[in-house]
Structure formats: structure tokens, C-alpha cells
Amino acid sequence: MIEITETWIDSLAPNSAAIKNGHDLIKKGKFTVLHQSEDQQVLFGSCAGSGKTPYSPSADFVIPDKPVMRCSCPSRQIPCKHVLGLLYAYAEGKSFSRAAVPDELAAKREKAEKREEKKAKETAEGNAAKPKKVNKSALKKKVIAQLEGLDVLEKLIFSLIRRGLGTLDAKELKVIQEHVKQMGSFYLNGAQVQLRKLHIILTSGGNPERTYNLAAEQFAVIHAFIKKGRAHLNAKLEDPELALDRESSIEEWLGHAWQLSELKEAGLVGPETELIQLSFLSYDDASRMEFVDNGYWMQMDSGEIHCTVQYRPYKAAKLMREEDSFFEVAHVPMLYRYPGDMNRRVRFESFTSRTVDQQDIARIREYAASSYVEAVKRVKNQLKNPLGDPNPVMMLHVEKVVTDDNGRIFIVDAYGETLGLQDLLEDSTVHLLNYLPEYSLKNVAMLVVFEHQTQSGQLRVQPLSIVNGQEIVRLLY
Q: What residue spans carry the Basic and acidic residues bias annotation (predicted)?
């Protein structure tokens, strides 16, 4: 059976309330029975509930990286608080007596094993489920509709620009909102997001000059989206297969949600590897009308910085498990990569975990970019693409942290080059450096997020985490 730690259990929980409730069950002595199967693959027990009949939670590790959680309670959450409590009890070292698996649970296990055997047999014989056939006629109609939608969007943008930002009134703002709805009819979810973002900028108030600068940047992004989207869709119509673009992020901009099967078919799958999460943040993206859970991870065999992203739509947020920080090493059997440039989005279906050791710390530090000049070149290449992520993340070597006469803080590389630190995200981290010991500010690796500030023309960075010789110090998690 895999190593069961509290961090790993926390990563399974649907929300923070479930974590608390799971611990509370142990504190209140609700578990009357705690068992482990003779083959040590199943944990099961009895937990007192609100009724006379206790609940029967279980965790089956017959497939170590894909444990099956079951419970007789009526909760729709998987795993429920009773299963979480069972796992926490095991992680805390509570006594689990050896016992035979109950007949009802054994029957469920047998059915699951047969399903897995059938899948394995089909794969071995080459009879695995064939990729879903694409209705090319329907897809072609969708592409034509998207092209029509881009024409409508272009007319709107040109009209707004000709009027001038200073003359936009409530009527024009209402027109933008109407076009947001209209873009949905053209299957252009990405256009909806960008128009909402423009509307938010124009109605945010505050410094007019800053508003106009942000709006001008947003117009440029939308224009690039129209231009690249149109070129891609026209090329797609000429392709007999109407194939998806496997290299750039244009499909996502146009509203395509990649399925794992599509990523696998496109060859965007890597073999087993290990990942360490270096930073995590959750925020409310009003332009998407979703909550976003975003983690930055280092792939330990390459040093690449990837991101995991979970979108939780406002309407369904309460029903979805909220992601959280992860403090161990995740061993991933198969890593799915999305098309893109720096910090490619990744996904994985299952994982096992282990604690971070000193060798992991040393390796992370080795991957840190030693030259800021080279790092800035790479970031600028990313920023040249208007549809690229405007906030790329990198791991940099920091020889030291210095403060000038005006109180501004800079990081310095081994060649004496500097980068100015500034809070770019909603959550502030720069001031936290003042509370760190000296050994966390000299000869360290620092995960930073970049941003190009158009008014000053300079690149600024915000620290997300620091890796000294002993540990990972998260400034944002």
C-alpha cells in the first residue's frame, strides 16, 4: 500500500470543511471499529452517525495510485468525511486490527477487479475503445459560425476605437455586454471572456489614465485574437480532417476544452515523472465568471515549471472540489500536457506521494536560471505573443537581495544584474522578505512571476517562493 500522509489525504478532500470534519470524527471518538484487510490493501471500519446504524467507510488500495473510496453514508462528496476520518486515523498511527473484508465490500471489489481485468485484456489485444469519431459536417458548421462571430467582434472593436475611449458612455458599455451574450451563439467562449474583461476595465473607475492604458492593451489582445483566430479557422476549413492545433493555445482561446483522450491522441503525454508544487493561489476571475485554482510545479527530471489549473464556474463552485496547496512530491504515472509555451498547463489522473528530501531541494536549486539576462530574453519572447500568458513564471538564482535608498527591493544574480521586485498579484509577498532570515536571502533559488509594465517599459517580478539550502519557503500558498 502507498504511504498515507496527511498532506496526501488533504489533497483528496473536496473542501476545507471536509478536512476539519474528518479530523473531528477522530477527536470525538466516532470510529468504533478500525480494520485493515489481511493483504493490507483495504482499510475499513465503522463510524457512528446521526442514526442508529453506523456508517461503513472504506479505502481500497488494490490499485495503489487509484484508491477506491466507499461509504454507506448518503453524502454526495467523494471521499466523504467518514472516509477522510478513516484515512486520517491511519496516518495518525491509530490501531487497525486485521480482519476479513466484509462480504458486501468484497463483492464490490470483485466487480471492480473484473472491470480492470477486462480493460487490461482489451488493451493487450488492441481492442481498446476507439477514439470518438468527429462529426465533420457539424464541426465545419461550427467553424463557419466562429468565423462569422469574429467578423461581428471585429466590427464592434473598430467601432469602439473610432469613437475613442474618452467618449464611451453607458450606451456603448451596454452594447459590449450584449455582444458578450452574442459571442456565445457563435461558439466563441474566449471572445466572451475578453469582452467581459474589457467591460470590467472600462467600468472599474479609478485613475482614468491607467484605465485607458489597460483598455488599449485589451483592445490589442482582442485584435490579435481576431487575426490569429481567423487565420487558424480558415486553415482548418482547408484541412480535410479539421484537425486541432497541437502546438499553440489558439484552440483554448476559441473555446475548445481539451479532453485527456485528445491530448493522448495528439501525443501530448509524458511518461511517469515526479512533480513538486512550489506555489499555489486561488482567485476570482470575473471575466471568466469562475474561481481559479492555480498551482505551479517543477518537473524534477527536467526542471520545467508547469501549471495546473482548475476552473470552478460560479454556478457549480459549491459542487466542485477546491484544489489546495500540496507539500509533498507527487509521483505521476502519466503527465498530460496542453499546447502552449512557457508554464504549460498539465494534468494527471492519479499519483502517489512521498516527503520532500534534501536531494529534491538540491535539485530544485540546480535548475534555477543563473543569468537574468538570459531569463529576460526568454520572458520577452513569450510576451511578444499577445495571446501568451502575460505573467510567466521562472525559477531564478538569487545571489543576494538588496534595498536602495528609496526602499525599493532588488534581486541580484551572480553577474551583478538586477531585477526589481514589486507586488503584481492581488496578494502581496514582497514585504514578507523583511521577515526572513539572512540565509533565505543569499544564494537561494526564487520562484518569481514576471510582468511587463507598459507605462515604465520595464519588467518587474514578484517572489512566490524561496528555496534555501534546507527548505522551500512559500510566500504565497
A: 110-124
What does the pLDDT read at residue 313? 93
Residue keyed to cell 521586485: 421
pLDDT score of 129: 47
How far is Cα 307 from Cα 296, in angstroms, rounded to an integer?
A: 4
What are the tens digits of pLDDT across the range 367-409? 999 999 999 999 999 999 999 999 999 999 999 999 999 989 9
Checking 90-97 for CB contacts under 8 A at 24+ apart, the result is: 90/4, 90/34, 90/36, 90/43, 91/4, 91/5, 91/6, 91/9, 92/26, 94/26, 94/31, 94/34, 95/34, 96/34, 96/35, 96/36, 96/43, 96/45, 97/34, 97/35, 97/36
Q: Is residue 430 within 8 Å of residue 419, measured between CB atoms?
A: no
Q: What pTM, to 2 d.p., does this model score?
A: 0.84
Domains and CATH numbers, the chain: 6-124 (no CATH), 136-252 (no CATH), 260-356 (2.40.50), 373-474 (2.40.50)
pLDDT at 64: 80
